[in-house]
Amino acid sequence: MSSGRPEILFPLFAAVSGLKGIGPKTAALLTHIDVEAPRDLLYTLPHSVIDRRLRDTVQGADLPATLTVEVEIGQHRPARNKGGAYRVMVEDAQTAFQIVFFHARGDYVSKLLPFGARRIVSGRVEFFDGMAQMVHPDHVVLPDEANTLPEFEPVYPLTAGVSQKTMAKAASDALDRAPDLAEWADPALVKREEWPGWRDAMTQAHAPQGTADLSLDSPVKRRLAYDELLAHQLTLALARAQSRAKPGVSSVGDGRLRRKVFAALPYKPTDAQMRSIQDITDDLEKTQRMNRLLQGDVGSGKTLVAFMALLTVAEAGGQGVMMAPTEILARQHLESLQPLAEDAGVVLELLTGRDKGAERKAKLAALARGDIQILVGTHAVFQKDVAFDDLRLAIIDEQHRFGVRQRLELGRKGLAVDVLVMTATPIPRSLALAQYGDMDVSVLDEKPPGRTPVKTALLSNEMMDSVIDRLRHAVAEGRQAYWVCPLVEESEVLDLTAAEDRFKRLRAVLGEGVVGLVHGQMPPAEKDAAMARFVAGETGVLVATTVIEVGVNVPNASIMVIERAETFGLAQLHQLRGRVGRGSAESTCLLLYQPPLNESGLKRLTTLRETEDGFRISEVDLEMRGAGDVLGTAQSGLPRFRIADLERQASLMAIAQDDARKLLQDDPHLKSARGKAARVLLYLMRQDQAIQLISVG
Ligand code: ADP
Ligand code: MG
Predict the structure, then answer these.
(1) Which residues, given as ranges, of the chain have pLDDT below 50?
(2) Residue whose CA is closest, atom 23 of ligand 1?
(3) Ligand 1 pocket: which residues have CB below 6 Å?
(4) 220 CA distance to ligand 1 centroid (A)?
């Protein structure tokens, strides 16, 4: 990874043990807070600050507080017994108080605070027994040494075995080694925001002069946060530029297939659907490769948009593939698209891991001949022996867990086609920018009309009997329901037991044949059969673990019961609820919970009751959980920002994206002065992926 690192950064990537006060032992401890180089120490900023400015008196201060005063030292009252308190009476300009020591040895205290002398003492003062006292002062200095006390003392995040003093000293040494770096940020932006340069910003960030300097809104913090965001966005922009630069195929459809489907649709596409279809058609027409994200809440109608894209390449004589994350979803796509494909007169086939033997061979042969225009399937569609005649478009459905890294890999696999990724998980803009910044984005922000809102209610699971009774009536009226069983942490076996128990109980009450069951460990064929019976309306209630979470579409299902709803995350609950409210019937979602609800559980469930707006829900989710959790840091490819806060600095992320894209547009190879500075930034921020892209490009 160090290959190509600019020399100017060498001191910042040297061994931490070379810093003042840090030996190999401390260096090892520091890795616990992800400090592996002086650079990391710079990016470990103080989280608070102690005001050590000298004041006249402790009187009138809001205790407890850390205070610094000059005192005259009075009587000593050594401890009467071992381990007792050694008290020293002192007087500041206005009042008397005590300085207290425990376990003081020998003449330590009398030397530190000689009777009758004057000293400046600094430490935490509190009330005890009606008297102000300072226990174990942090600093004791002579009055003429006042200037050796910092007015403001930074407080660093620590790890066991490393003290504040060690951190402060090492940080200060790292700052001394920090070079002046040429400016990589847009000069106009720097001017407008009144930002200091990188080195000054770092220096100031380690020497906060009061709490205002700790605020994320301070120019210093904003600047340093911006650097992190810019480095990340540059990486994404480089990936984007690289994938766009590769020659793609221009697919221009003549509209003949799409017209047939539009004419046969029983509904009118929403404006948002039309806009997205247009975005995609434009992309397909260009010789640059498409790399687009289609973001739309559950039920917003992404499938139609995807299908129109597939038809466009079919019109142009090419092939398209749509990949779903699960078998169930792939089959459902097949079922919903098959009639449309017939309207259009194109051949659509399904390919999953279950295709075997002669049948699979025949499908692959047809695909290779170009007799199949549209292929729907699971990961199986990208197996090595799957060859297309003329693949032009790959659509990846419901892949919100598909991170930047995996997308880049897809490109590396030589998938030289236009790519459309669809996600049903609305995520706040800042996160979308962070995770999908390499892509262009279309948003379905409008739901098809005629949906009745889902009524959501919170019920204690003590109400279970009456819930089951209501369910019995509803099923008798021909309504269908999902019953989602609780998640049992880290145990699929327990999940299963819970689901099977519930299944048996419901079957006992509602009758044999009325209740179906699907769970993750079922043999695939049984799962399909159970799903199929529910889709056909043969079963009225489907008991399920979260396998139904994504994508499943049964318009007649109008009741969703979620057991132990408090154990699910907000986004998951939103997805689950999205399974109902798809038809014209009034739908209900019952969130059963086990009392007492804790604060977070209550917030999640009431948020869900109050709104169906996926974006609103995702913002609450982000607020409650933080970015890494919302996206799943491990898979998201999101760096862990040390300073930037995605939740509160969304606008800064947007600026960083614009900037990064513009910089690369003007200077694709980062050759200009600013481009070179940006390279240094990438190394400084350990953006190894970006560095690879530069060295390749
Ligand atoms: P999702 O975005 O969750 O994948 P789907 O594409 O599965 O949503 O669409 C959900 C349902 O809405 C489907 O039954 C689909 O036929 C229907 N639908 C899609 N677009 C419209 C529209 N413009 N008007 C009415 N119904 C629509
Ligand atoms: Mg879908």
Answers:
(1) 1-2, 413-414, 633-636, 696-697
(2) 269
(3) 267, 269-270, 273, 296, 298-304, 424, 448, 553, 555, 582
(4) 47
Please check whether the two domains, 256-444 and 454-611, share a CATH topology: yes
Q: Residue 291 forms beta bridges with which residues?
A: 419
Angle between helices 614-625 and 570-577 (to 10 degrees): 160
Report pLDDT for 630.
56
Which tokens hold the place of 217?
């809104």
**Distance from the alpha carbon of residue 130 to the mean position of ligand 1, in angstroms:** 71
Distance (angstroms) between ligand 2 centre and the Cα of 331 equals 12
554: Cβ–Cβ under 8 A, 6 or more apart, which residues? 480, 534, 535, 579, 582
Closest residue to atom 4 of ligand 1, CA basis: 302
What pLDDT is recorded for position 585? 78
93 HSE (CA, 13 A, CB side):
10
Test site for ligand 1: of 303, 442, 554, most ligand atoms within 8 A of the Cβ: 303
How does DSSP assign 128-151, residue by residue?
ETTEEEEES-SEEE-GGGGGGS-S
Structure tokens at 288: 């640059």
Q: How far is the CA of 329 from the centre of ligand 1 (A)?
A: 15
Ramachandran angles phi, psi of 351, nearest 5°? -135, 120
Cα gap 165→154, rounded to integer Å: 10
Pick the atom of ligand 1 nearest to 553's CA. Answer: 7
Instruction: Say what the pLDDT of residue 635 is.
Output: 44
What tens digit of pLDDT does each residue of 416-458 get?
Answer: 788 898 987 777 777 777 777 778 889 898 888 877 789 999 9
* 53-149 CATH, one of 3.30.470.20, 2.40.50.140, 1.10.3720.10, 1.20.58.480: 2.40.50.140
Ligand 1, atom 5, residue with closest C-alpha: 301
Cis peptide before 247 (omega within 30 of 0): no
Architecture of the structural domain at 454-611: 3-Layer(aba) Sandwich (3.40)
Domain ranges of the chain: 7-48+157-214, 53-149, 256-444, 454-611
Distance between CA atoms of residues 374 and 387, nearest Å: 13
- Give the span between the Cα atoms of 578 and 574, in whole angstroms: 6
d(CA 414, CA 384): 12
> How confident is the model over 143-184, as pLDDT tens digits?
998 888 888 989 998 888 888 889 999 999 999 999 999 999
Q: Are 536 and 580 in contact (CB under 8 A)?
A: no
Q: What is the pLDDT, as a whole number, of residue 607?
A: 94
Give one DSSP letter per residue of 446-478, joined into a string.
SPPTTPPPEEEEEEEGGGHHHHHHHHHHHHHTT
- Ligand nearest the Cα atom of residue 329: 2
Which residue in this structure is represented by tokens 């962070």? 434
Distance 64 CA to ligand 1 centre (A): 61
Distance 298 CA to ligand 2 centre (A): 7
Strands 348-351 and 152-155: unpaired
